[in-house]
């Protein structure tokens, strides 16, 4: 392992929650390929909180990176395989995994595409790979689609090959597998158009594509549409969870653009090739997404089983270099069957935007133009990633295309529907290809592609990277007898010093289908480069009848500007006939070698991981192998680098530490070498006034982009259970702008201490020893008398520690001490994320190899060994600390926390039942875009002191597992502050907080609202119930009319409001059952506010008055019969239209709302105080509160059984 882990004290329960933190944004748990579970939460401002646990619930060392909107989390064991190119990085892209529905809540298995070394390996692997079901055989790429179980068994089966693996080394996968990709999801790439491309002139000659087999792989079909009657000869469904019927409307639109008869329009809205035979494969679900493996299976069915000549793919995934599974399948099937795959370029509307499978060499990639032949703004442009080859190959009409509408689609009405996109351009080309296939049945797919691209209409001002050879002209292609190669790439030349490159020559072949020879006049140029950059030999070429001839095209790189890709055209003219072939070449920018050498604390080579970031935020990520050396070839720039690896810890040769070594300001204007020496690293640690153990720690590097428009880089690593220390390399006096190093610690009062043995871990939730100090005799395994003693055993991997604990308890042992037999600390075993169902029946402690063997040696030497043990079953204090370093790392990396510069919080927990409560606190330091939030035990009923670093924003989450979760706003404390927080107590009711924008109006009139229904009495706490325990209705009224309603456990509204400013009422109705407790059984809150137009690009939060309550209750939630009740109205920061509070009323009921009493209120600052006068027979208090402000905003809130009475 390699990446920052640490570790440090008793394991907290795992972090996955069945209750989403209210207002914090979506929370999801994803089991990665390694079997590790990652729980990730997106907060309102985009911060991400990843928590990583292995299958048994133990913390896992990981590397987390955020680039743009994507968050990647790499568990330590996966890093060498990722950097070696054996694992697709998207397997660890939490953002994509959740968006594709591959989180644990929506998918019980992880879909994969694997490629094998050879056919025999593929056959063998079907029986040898554990915990993965082969769902598809993908012969075209020598691979298969697998569904891996949510466990670590599959990972073990492909990585346990019997060879030792050194952290950081590139290595091989087992089972004959050469690479694993995420089986991601592609989507449809969504307009007078047959005349624009010349199709009617082809029809006039009698060619309608009769008999040509065309496959449409899309979202299904409306088989009963009049325009498709008699055209469909085969259908197959590759997304069985959806019917073949086209409920999206995309597939029917595409199919009719190719083959529609126009019957529903009296023959007007006719497709490009109305005589073809359609083979329909449904590869996109009704949600417009389909797994890539299913699309590959559909390709194989269309090309091999159906013998389709033309295969239309109006779909695509993210941009690639053409080496992804779908692109590989297109290339292989094209070569094998002679089919032509016509593929949408994509709708990203930017350079380097060509998605897969349009990026495939063999694909005929299609961009979109409008009816005036101008490039559509959405049309993806080249060059292709990697080699900068020209894509798209051509363009076709793709805006405002009218074609058949599926009767099953929600959009539109009648028989036709208008759509736009490269999806609409693609079937124009597929239909044109079918017309050519009917005219020239002997041509294969590649020749049809060349014929189409050679004969396009040139579009002045449009580069090849934008529009390929031009806009489709099927009339010209149909009458042509001459065509040439469609595209030539001279490569992207490596930089050398001096910059001298041999010219590169590529052949371009012309084919003459006619009966007479044709002489071509040739010319070639790159856009933006002098004419002499390209030479032709010969410049005049005669192509024999029914034959071929080649011209040699030579590109010179001399004088070609660096760091640019250039496109151009080879033009061949014979009389009125003009053909074009696209050309591309480029020369990379000046580059130099950066050699990084890493050494451990004893001077030996150190393996690990290295990330190097340029000024624009782009980065290289590589593994440093056992040699301790990595060589990178990078453009001239100033770089920041960060290395992490394993070193010896502080407890002896078998202990483990993690070292972090940054190197900033690396100016690479020549070859350069850097040595990162862990011997010069300093320990990163903290000290506290009270004895405390680290229970959570995370470390982050961030680097702001140093150029406008660049990406910022953030990396976070969190501790692993086996490490005892973290070390970092000081960067010296020089500071780097935009660089920050953050340290985050949680420390708690030690649960268990043994004098002289500090490298221990106590099993969470095991039966604790009584609080206080005691002396316990220790004995070795095999001793006949263990009753009341500490039984010391060596760790045996063949035995479960929990079984040994049960045996020790049965023998009467007071404590079980397990000595690790390997490196680092040993976590006894995992508990449930919400505490064990069956707690260990005896106290369990693990000792590291070094200290454990010292104890065993003592027992072997001495007649009697007595251990001095101190037990603290319930921590009385915790520390949440954050220390940030700007610009660099100083020589002293010890954070000395002191009560005089911390803030003190007295936290009171009021669970109405005395069972488990979990608490987590997230901190936000300089440069931080991710925070670590790990729920840990808190008192169910009681208080503790919680110290926090001053000057840092903190947000706290408190949870009763599987019942309710509460979250506070972000709050910053000053040094010396003394604050109180009360959690889970009455009065619980709907409450919004500034931690999230839950009710907001956007520019354009869009209005969205979600109201967390169960905030507790703590100020500005938002609360949400576990799924299924509560019901909520959210209603929006305007002038007495109900205009929107949502009924769900977590109801939400989204609608467009009228453009003028109008009054509205938002009503939240909530109820919950007895499992949630006896209080706040139902609530109804009605907010009155006004809302109007919002400026473009702006959001507006309406002024919804919030009500906070305070009443003194006992741990069971009961108040005195004459207790004071405080009500504090307020509005959230940043709202629009708020006024000052003018009127407050509080009514109370002691019979669940059948009768009411108006209370007398005493204003005290911003609070109104009432006094209860409860009859002896009353058991509960029901509240009805109103408030209004000077701007006309109002609130009325009713809470049934808000709290109990003593």
Word description of this protein:
- There is one protein chain.
- The strands form 16 sheets. A 9-stranded mixed beta sheet has the order 5-4-41-40-43-51-56-53-60.
- The two termini are 57 Å apart.
- It has 6 domains: 132 residues, Peptidase S8 propeptide/proteinase inhibitor I9 (Alpha-Beta Plaits); 248 residues, Rossmann fold, CATH 3.40.50.200; 92 residues, Immunoglobulin-like (Sandwich); 267 residues, no CATH class; 120 residues, Glucose Oxidase, domain 1 (3-Layer(bba) Sandwich), CATH 3.50.30; 207 residues, no CATH class.
- The longest helix is centred in the middle third of the chain and has 18 residues.
- The chain is mainly beta and 1206 residues long.
- 11% of the residues lie in helices and 40% in strands.
- It has 15 helices and 79 strands.
- A hairpin with a 5-residue loop joins strand 2 and strand 3.
Question: Main traits of this protein?
Answer:
disordered N terminus; about 10% helix; nine-stranded mixed beta sheet; Rossmann fold; 6 domains; Alpha-Beta Plaits; Immunoglobulin-like; 79 strands; mainly beta; 15 helices
Structural topology:
Layout: E1 27-31, E2 37-42, E3 48-53, E4 62-67, E5 70-75, H1 79-83, H2 94-99, E6 109-116, H3 119-128, E7 132-138, E8 143-149, H4 153-159, E9 177-182, E10 185-188, H5 193-196, H6 199-204, E11 213-218, E12 232-237, H7 250-259, E13 277-282, E14 289-291, H8 292-305, E15 310-313, E16 315-316, H9 325-337, E17 340-344, E18 364-369, E19 394-397, E20 401-404, E21 416-419, H10 422-439, H11 445-454, H12 464-467, H13 474-479, E22 482-484, E23 487-493, E24 504-512, E25 518-526, E26 534-537, E27 540-543, E28 548-555, E29 564-574, E30 577-587, E31 591-599, E32 608-613, E33 619-624, E34 629-635, E35 637-648, E36 656-668, E37 672-677, E38 682-683, E39 685-687, E40 693-703, E41 713-718, E42 725-728, E43 739-748, E44 752-754, E45 760-762, E46 772-780, E47 790-794, H14 801-810, E48 815-819, E49 843-847, H15 849-861, E50 865-871, E51 877-886, E52 894-896, E53 902-910, E54 917-923, E55 936-938, E56 941-949, E57 953-960, E58 964-967, E59 971-972, E60 978-983, E61 999-1002, E62 1006-1010, E63 1022-1025, E64 1030-1038, E65 1041-1048, ...
Parallel strand pairs: 11-13, 11-15, 12-13, 15-17, 17-18, 18-19, 23-30, 31-37, 36-42, 39-52, 46-47, 47-48, 48-49, 51-56, 53-60, 69-73, 71-79
Antiparallel strand pairs: 1-2, 2-3, 4-5, 4-41, 6-8, 6-9, 7-8, 10-14, 10-16, 20-21, 22-24, 24-28, 25-27, 25-29, 26-28, 29-30, 31-34, 32-33, 32-35, 35-36, 38-42, 40-41, 40-43, 43-51, 44-50, 45-49, 46-50, 53-56, 54-55, 54-57, 57-58, 57-59, 58-63, 61-62, 61-69, 62-66, 64-65, 64-67, 67-68, 68-79, ...
Helix pairs in contact: 7-10, 8-9
């Amino acid at each position: 392992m390699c990446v920052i882990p640490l570790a440090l004290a008793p394991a907290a329960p795992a972090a996955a929650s069945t209750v989403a933190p209210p207002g914090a944004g979506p929370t999801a748990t994803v089991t990665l390929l390694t079997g590790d579970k990652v729980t990730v939460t997106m907060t309102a401002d985009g911060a991400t909180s990843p928590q990583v646990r292995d299958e048994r619930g133990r913390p896992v060392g990981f590397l987390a990176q955020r680039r743009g909107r994507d968050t990647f989390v790499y568990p330590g064991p996966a890093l060498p395989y990722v950097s070696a190119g054996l694992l697709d990085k998207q397997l660890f892209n939490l953002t994509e995994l959740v968006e594709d529905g591959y989180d644990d809540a929506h998918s019980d298995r992880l879909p994969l595409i694997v490629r094998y070394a050879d056919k025999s390996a593929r056959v063998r692997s079907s029986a040898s790979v554990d915990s993965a079901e082969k769902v598809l055989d993908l012969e075209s790429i020598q691979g298969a689609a697998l569904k891996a179980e949510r466990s670590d068994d599959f990972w073990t089966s492909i990585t346990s090959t019997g060879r030792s693996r050194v952290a950081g080394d590139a290595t091989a996968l087992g089972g004959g597998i050469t690479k694993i990709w995420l089986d991601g999801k592609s989507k449809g790439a969504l307009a007078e158009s047959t005349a624009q491309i010349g199709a009617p002139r082809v029809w006039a000659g009698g060619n309608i594509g009769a008999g040509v087999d065309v496959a449409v792989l899309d979202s299904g079909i409306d088989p009963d549409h009049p325009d498709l009657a008699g055209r469909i000869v085969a259908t197959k469904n590759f997304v069985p969870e959806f019917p073949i019927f086209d409920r999206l409307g995309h597939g029917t639109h595409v199919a009719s653009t190719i083959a529609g008869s126009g019957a529903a329009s009296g023959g007007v809205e006719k497709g490009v090739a109305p005589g073809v035979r359609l083979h329909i494969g449904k590869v996109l679900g009704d949600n417009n997404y389909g797994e890539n493996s299913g699309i590959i299976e559909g390709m194989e069915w269309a090309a091999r089983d159906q013998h389709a000549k033309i295969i239309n793919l109006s779909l695509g995934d993210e941009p690639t270099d053409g080496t992804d599974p779908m692109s590989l399948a297109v290339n292989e099937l094209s070569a094998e069957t002679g089919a032509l795959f016509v593929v949408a370029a994509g709708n990203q509307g930017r350079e380097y935007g060509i998605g897969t499978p349009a990026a495939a060499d063999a694909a005929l990639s299609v961009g979109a133009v409008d009816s005036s032949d101008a490039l559509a703004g959405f049309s993806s442009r080249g060059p292709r990633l990697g080699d900068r080859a020209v894509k798209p190959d051509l363009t076709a009409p793709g805006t405002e295309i009218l074609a058949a509408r599926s009767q099953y689609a929600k959009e539109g009405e009648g028989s036709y529907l208008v759509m736009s996109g490269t999806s609409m351009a693609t079937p124009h080309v597929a239909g044109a290809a079918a017309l050519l296939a009917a005219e020239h049945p002997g041509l294969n797919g590649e020749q049809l592609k060349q014929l189409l691209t050679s004969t396009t209409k040139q579009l002045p001002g449009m580069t090849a990277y934008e529009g390929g050879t031009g806009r489709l002209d099927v009339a010209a292609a149909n009458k042509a007898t001459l065509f040439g190669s469609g595209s030539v790439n001279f490569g992207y030349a490596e930089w050398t010093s001096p910059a001298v490159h041999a010219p590169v020559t590529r052949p371009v072949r012309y084919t003459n289908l006619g009966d007479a020879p044709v002489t071509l006049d040739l010319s070639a140029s790159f856009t933006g480069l002098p004419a002499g950059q390209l030479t032709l030999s010969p410049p005049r070429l005669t192509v024999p009848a029914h034959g071929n001839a080649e011209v040699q095209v030579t590109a010179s790189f001399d004088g070609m500007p660096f760091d640019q890709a250039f496109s151009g055209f080879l033009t061949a003219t014979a009389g009125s006939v003009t053909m074009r072939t696209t050309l591309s070449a480029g020369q990379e920018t000046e580059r130099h070698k950066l050699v990084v050498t890493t050494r451990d604390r004893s001077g030996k080579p150190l393996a690990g991981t290295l990330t190097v970031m340029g000024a624009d935020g782009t980065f290289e990520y590589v593994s440093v192998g056992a040699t301790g050396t990595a060589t990178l070839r990078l453009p001239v720039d100033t770089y920041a680098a960060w290395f992490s690896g394993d070193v010896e810890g502080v407890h002896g040769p078998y202990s483990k530490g993690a070292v972090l070594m940054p190197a900033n300001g690396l100016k690479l204007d020549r070859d350069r070498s850097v040595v990162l020496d862990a011997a010069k690293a300093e320990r990163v640690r903290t000290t506290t006034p009270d004895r405390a153990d680290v229970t959570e720690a995370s470390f982050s590097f961030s680097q702001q982009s140093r150029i406008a428009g660049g990406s910022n880089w953030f990396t976070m690593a969190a501790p692993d259970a086996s490490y005892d220390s973290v070390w970092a390399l000081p960067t010296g006096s020089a500071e780097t702008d935009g660089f920050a190093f953050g340290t985050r610690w949680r420390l708690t009062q030690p649960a268990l201490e043994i004098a002289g043995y500090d490298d221990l871990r106590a099993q969470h939730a095991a039966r604790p020893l009584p609080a206080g100090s005691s002396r316990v005799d220790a004995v070795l395994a095999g001793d006949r008398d263990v009753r009341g003693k500490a039984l010391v055993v060596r760790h045996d991997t063949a035995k479960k520690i929990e079984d040994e604990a049960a045996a020790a308890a049965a023998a009467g042992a007071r404590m079980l001490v397990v000595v690790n037999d390997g490196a680092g600390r040993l976590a006894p075993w995992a508990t449930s994320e919400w505490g064990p169902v069956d707690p260990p029946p005896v106290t369990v402690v693990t000792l590291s190899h070094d200290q454990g063997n010292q104890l065993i040696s003592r027992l072997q030497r001495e007649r009697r060994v007595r251990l001095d043990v101190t037990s603290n079953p319930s921590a009385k204090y915790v520390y949440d600390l954050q220390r940030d370093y700007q610009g660099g790392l100083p020589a002293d990396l010890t954070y000395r926390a002191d009560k005089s510069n911390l803030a003190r919080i007295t936290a009171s927990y009021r669970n109405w039942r005395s069972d488990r409560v979990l608490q987590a606190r997230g901190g936000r330091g300089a440069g931080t875009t991710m925070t670590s939030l790990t729920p840990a035990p808190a008192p169910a009923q009681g208080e503790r002191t919680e110290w926090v670093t001053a000057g840092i924003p903190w947000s706290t989450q408190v949870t009763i597992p599987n019942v309710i979760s509460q979250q506070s706003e972000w709050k910053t404390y000053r040094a010396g502050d003394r604050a109180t927080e009360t959690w889970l107590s009455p009065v619980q009711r709907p409450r919004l907080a500034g931690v999230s924008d839950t009710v907001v109006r956007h520019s354009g009139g869009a209005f969205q609202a979600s109201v967390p229904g169960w905030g507790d009495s703590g100020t500005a706490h938002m609360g949400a119930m576990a799924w299924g325990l509560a019901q909520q209705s959210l209603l929006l009224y305007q002038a007495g009319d109900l205009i929107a309603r949502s009924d769900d456990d977590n109801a939400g509204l989204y609608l467009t409001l009228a453009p003028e400013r109008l009054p509205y009422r938002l009503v939240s109705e909530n109820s919950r059952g007895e499992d949630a407790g006896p209080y706040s059984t139902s609530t109804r809150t009605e907010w009155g506010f006004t809302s109007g137009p919002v400026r473009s690009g702006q959001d507006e939060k309406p002024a919804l008055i919030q009500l906070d309550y305070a009443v003194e209750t006992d741990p069971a939630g009961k108040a005195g019969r004459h207790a004071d009740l405080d009500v504090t109205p307020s509005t959230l920061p940043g709202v629009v239209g708020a006024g000052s509070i003018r009127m407050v009323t509080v009514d109370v009921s002691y019979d669940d709302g059948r009768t009411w009493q108006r209370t007398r209120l005493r204003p005290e600052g911003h609070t109104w105080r009432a006094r209860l006068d409860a009859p002896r027979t009353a058991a509960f208090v029901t509240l009805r509160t109103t408030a209004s402000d000077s701007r006309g905003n109002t609130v009325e809130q009713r809470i049934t059984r808000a709290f109990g009475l003593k």
